[in-house]
Amino acid sequence: MNDAGRRARWVLGFAWLLLPVHIAVAQQREFVTSERLTLGTERLRSASVRVGDIDGDGDLDIVSASGRHWPQQNQLFVNQGRAKFSILRPLGTDQRTSYACEFADFDGDGDLDIATGNDMAPGEIFLNDGGGHFTLHGEYGDVTSLRSLLAIDLDVDGDVDLIATCRGRPNHIYLNDGQANFESGSTFGKNTDSTIDVAAGDINGDGHLDLVLANRDRQPNEVLLGDGELRFTRSMPFGSGEDHSRSVAIADLNADGNLDWGIANIGSKNQIFLGDGSGGVMRVVEFGSSDSQSYTLAIADMNQDDMADLVVGNLNQPNAVFLRTDNGLNFQEVSFGKASATYGLDVGDLDGDGDADIVVANSDDLNRIFLNRVNRQ
Hints:
Layout: H1 19-26, E1 28-32, E2 44-52, E3 61-66, E4 75-78, E5 87-90, E6 98-104, E7 113-118, E8 121-128, E9 134-140, E10 146-152, E11 161-166, E12 171-176, E13 182-188, E14 195-201, E15 210-215, E16 219-225, E17 234-243, E18 245-251, E19 260-265, E20 270-275, E21 281-287, E22 294-300, E23 309-324, E24 331-348, E25 357-365, E26 368-375
Antiparallel strand pairs: 1-26, 2-3, 2-25, 3-4, 4-5, 6-7, 7-8, 8-9, 10-11, 11-12, 12-13, 14-15, 15-16, 16-17, 18-19, 19-20, 20-21, 22-23, 23-24, 24-25, 25-26
Protein name: FG-GAP repeat-containing protein
Organism: Rhodopirellula sallentina SM41
InterPro entries: FG-GAP, Integrin_alpha_N
């Protein structure tokens, strides 16, 4: 994800201005696609997509991870400006069972590299030559049921590490040696957790990163409080206790100085948990339908009113943007796209017009871009 969206998985701050709110209400948003706004022409089993400037030309490019349980080719899409993705490059020579991809500067040379995470196959690190061409640097990790990656400097040593969730198996931390080589660190959560996604942020205000886990298979979701020594042993469960959750994103949604988090659920409404500043939950706000089939979620300002909105990708239901309508937590739902199987999404200004667009990773369908437009009707 880029600054507008993905990094909401761990920290976002917002100024809360009243005047732009009234402007945003008057300007209805729509998110439009076309046959020219697909990522290639293949219907892959894609699970993850990220945006970032890989070639230093000032516009945002895209990487997609595909396969899930069946080996397929991961791909790069190079933006020629104004969301014209006219160049497609394969990422690597192997086809793998990829569930996740992340952009980050893993070797500290100032450009974006790529980590991929695979189901029952080692992950891979690809280094950027600065011009958007990638070379396989090496493999990392265990052969496990990886479902998501988060790139973040977890040990605060100045380089970017990786956190991997592994459904039904131990979740892993992989520490970067500063040269894009990753060693297995500690595990977190229970060894049998069905963790699908993780976000990181200082939930209890002690200066250390904590982890928020989205679990499925009727397991409780959890906040794991960190001690600054890569130990996440203090658990603060939240949710129903029998959750089917697939995605989590973090931001201070009610502007009280404490981090909150959004959860995408299967078979129930999606939820916002307002943090109390100590790791617990002060209040729960539900949004979406009672039979939501939500697989992915991002937090970003989608209508330039300086308030955090929520973008949700669904299975066999239209995707939706939930726009904040006031300084509280009331939403206007704006659906986009046809019902598909959206496993992942990211947001960023793909066409350079100043607002955040959406790219979705679909399984057994075309991956698509949705441009953010003001509906003047």
